[in-house]
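Exercise 7. Predict the joint structure of the components listed below.
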Amino acid sequence: MKIIVTIKQVPDTTEVKLDPVTGTLIREGVPSIMNPDDKAGLEAALQLRDKIPGSTVTALSMGPAQASVMMREALAMGADRAILLCDRAFAGSDTLATSSSIAAAIRTLEFDLVVTGRQAIDGDTAQVGPQIAEHLHIPNVSYAAEIVPEFGSLKVKRMFDDRYQWQRVKTPCLLTALSELAQPRYLAPGAVFRAWREKEVETWNVSNIEIDPGYLGLAGSPTKVKKSFPKAVKPAGCVVAAENGEAADIIMKKLREHFII
Amino acid sequence: MDIKEYSGVFVFAECLDGKVVDAAFELLGEAGRLAAVKGAQVTAVLVGPVTDDNVKALGAGGADRVITCGDGRLKDYLTLPYTHVLETIVKTYKPEIFLFAATPIGRDLAPRLSARLRTGLTADCTKLEMDAESGNLLMTRPAFGGNIMATIVCGEHRPQMATVRPGVMQRAESVSDAKPAVVAVAYDAPADADGVEILETVIKPHTKQNIRDAKILISGGRGVGSPENFKMLEEIADLLGCTTSASRAVVDAGWQEKDRQVGQTGQTVRPDLYLACGISGAIQHVAGMEESGLIIAINKDERAAIFSVADLGIVGNLMTVLPSLKERLAQALG
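Solution:
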């Protein structure tokens, strides 16, 4: 099975802090990581490859040159190829332009399965996966929590809020991975070493793909950011140190003031 | 594309188990407010379980018109057949705005449809307004894990599509004798309709109240210490006739079910009282509960971020505060 996994380098938003005075984002010192859902998708793809003889896994990303560090990590995890789409022409892409460019890259490769993360922690849109599937004219199953390979199809556990479904999807297809799909492996030092010494990250630019120039970057993006702003800061409440009954009394008083009890 | 040909606000009336979901009625309420600005119509799009009850409920919820596509093959949500139906409806009826709930269904269907139509889609919006100057929809959403807000426009493409966070918008006042116009659309199955097949549906047993509907939430974080300690929160919730919720850390650790999770990757709640026990208050969590009426936080770390959104903060040990609180509540409500 030929598997392509799309991955994205994101700032670790759990490490992001707000400046308490200005309310703006403190970006310095925030580490860049492989997006967690994507990493689970990559791990699941590697496990599928190891189950099915003759399979390959290609990691594909779009991003700035610094994302090649993450591509090395994908190689160290065990990806056979790592391709980074890196070109100024992609700058300013919204989800539609991003998905169009990535789909164009996938079209130049052979594939039976495309795995994307459900969503990236910087944008949280969950849009790029289903949009890639649409551009490629293949079925997609979103929110995948388990994959069972079959002949010419996959059985996928598709999660909803209060339920799940087992679905059968014909290949070629696209799945969007939940982080529970697979627990990413720990990297052995040897694997990291080999990823740097023996493997290469392939960097592609826009000339490596076939795409309508109108679909690229800012021009190919129907949505535009009009403005961004820090969230309104709420006036501070009252904070007191208290234990036992003293604390309980303070809470009870507040509940009565607000007619909760 | 002549964007002037497009008019009206459309809402996808998502259904589960044959009934329109709550989030769709919130969308209708919001659609009504947006449509009023332009004197436009609100249309609900009902695919699958086209029943009198559903049509009537959509009318009562604010739909001037209901476009239906009822066919046995559309009984359950499937990406490709539903995308095809909506594509046909958009191309025929040309909506200016099309809203979806940001649910596991809406967040699958809306992206697929937007890509097919090659129009813009904004995810997980928490605020929608009409721009008086341009007439465009201003779609505001949290980004960067809720750290910043971004306002997005889709100026040159129609429809302007958005998914909207459930629990954020308000339903309209119900109009019980509303008579919405009903337009039925036939289903012609697309060639790719059989790409995905549902083998089995497993509904998780639902014993607890949905946290989005709760007036009071007793919410626990990692500071609760262990799954056993959650019992204390449940006892307090029982006394107040409410339910418990949890932070992501607790759900990831398997102490509580995913349907209890509050925050950016969980649910948005706005109860009258949110009692945060041992929750540090990561921005992703705060994004899901900051609109609560009264926020009381108990945490032993005085620097915990939760205190910056709390109306009342108690710096103290949960294991001494909660038993005392339980006792006082039992006396007061006894």
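Discussion. The mean pLDDT of chain A is 92.
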